[in-house]
Amino acid sequence: MSAELLRVDVGNLTFDVRASGPEDGRPVLLLHGFPQTSLCWAAVTPLLTGAGLRCYAVDQLGYSPGARPDDVGSYALPSLAQVTGELMTALDVPVADLVGHDFGANVGWALAGWHPDRVRSLTAVSVPHPAAFTAAYRSDPEQKERSGYIRLFWQAGKAEEVLLADGARRLRRMLLGADGASGVPAEAADEYVAVLSAPGALTAALNWYRAMSSADRVEPAAVPTTYVWSSGDIAIGRTAAERCAAFVTGDYRFVELQGTHWIPEQAPEELATAVLDRIASS
Question: Which residues have CB under 8 Å from 225's CB, separation 6+?
Answer without folding.
Answer: 112, 121, 122, 123, 124, 248, 250, 251, 252, 253, 278
